[in-house]
Specification:
The structure is a single chain. With 205 residues, the chain is α/β, with parallel strands linked by helices. It has 2 domains: 3-90, NAD(P)-binding Rossmann-like Domain (Rossmann fold); 97-202, Rossmann fold, CATH 3.40.50. Helix content is 34%, strand content 15%. The protein has 9 helices and 8 strands. The strands form 2 sheets. The chain has a 5-stranded parallel β-sheet with strand order 2-1-3-4-5. Strands 6-7-8 form a 3-stranded parallel β-sheet, with helices on both faces. α3 links the parallel β3 (44-47) and β4. α5 (97-112) packs across α7 (152-163).
């Protein structure tokens, strides 16, 4: 039976998947001192981006075989130190890009359609009267969406922009297959790669 240290709150369903192993944590955020006191007996860690898994911390991990990071990134983990100790590091790629794009697109609508401002006005009970300029925002249809980097999140944003009738340009180190973006809306211009200066010059958002 493995001893698994879970350094941050997790959904009960996720903890249930750990079966009959000796699971410590999962109901609170561990600080450095607590993690230092536990890591020496751990066979596995289920971690978050805020955990300080530097060389000094990993030097205490005498039994550790695997770090399962609940994030797409791993900037908090000293990969060289982990490799030197034979510790496998895993992440969870491909699970957050759609949610991130949802939030980013929501923020874009908050700005262009003044949703946050309007919501605060209604909640405050402020008297208002309709006229053609009241809370007038900007539509996204026909606007140009500029995306710096067309990775998973960038492509997810581009698809949403195309669905709203936006033209999409992107800056990246190399060309990407944009057929999935262009297929969303045949009435928008073809997605194209530009350099950063052109992107900044032509983008509305």
């Amino acid at each position: 039976m493995a001893r698994i240290i879970v350094t941050a709150p997790q959904m009960p369903e996720a903890l249930d998947r750990l079966g009959d192993h000796d699971v410590v944590g999962g109901d609170h955020f561990m600080d450095r001192a607590e993690l230092e006191s536990l890591i020496g007996d751990a066979d596995a860690l289920l971690t978050s981006l805020s955990d300080p898994l530097d060389a000094e911390m990993l030097a205490r991990a005498d039994r550790l075989k695997v770090i399962g990071q609940c994030a797409a990134g791993f900037n908090n983990i000293d990969l060289d130190a982990a490799t030197a100790r034979g510790i496998v590091v895993t992440t969870t790629p491909g699970v957050l890009h759609e949610a991130t794009a949802d939030l980013a697109f929501g923020l874009m609508l908050m700005v262009t359609r003044r949703l946050g401002e309007a919501e605060r006005l209604v909640r405050a009970g402020t008297p208002w009267r309709y006229d053609h300029t009241f809370m007038l925002g900007a539509g996204l249809q026909g606007a140009t969406l500029g995306i710096v980097g067309l990775g998973q999140i960038g492509e997810a944003m581009a698809r949403r922009g195309a669905a709203f009738g936006m033209d999409v340009v992107y800056d990246a180190r190399h060309d990407h297959d944009v057929s999935a973006i262009d297929a969303v809306n045949p009435h928008t211009a073809a997605t194209r790669r530009v350099d950063l200066q052109e992107l900044l010059a032509v983008s509305d958002v």
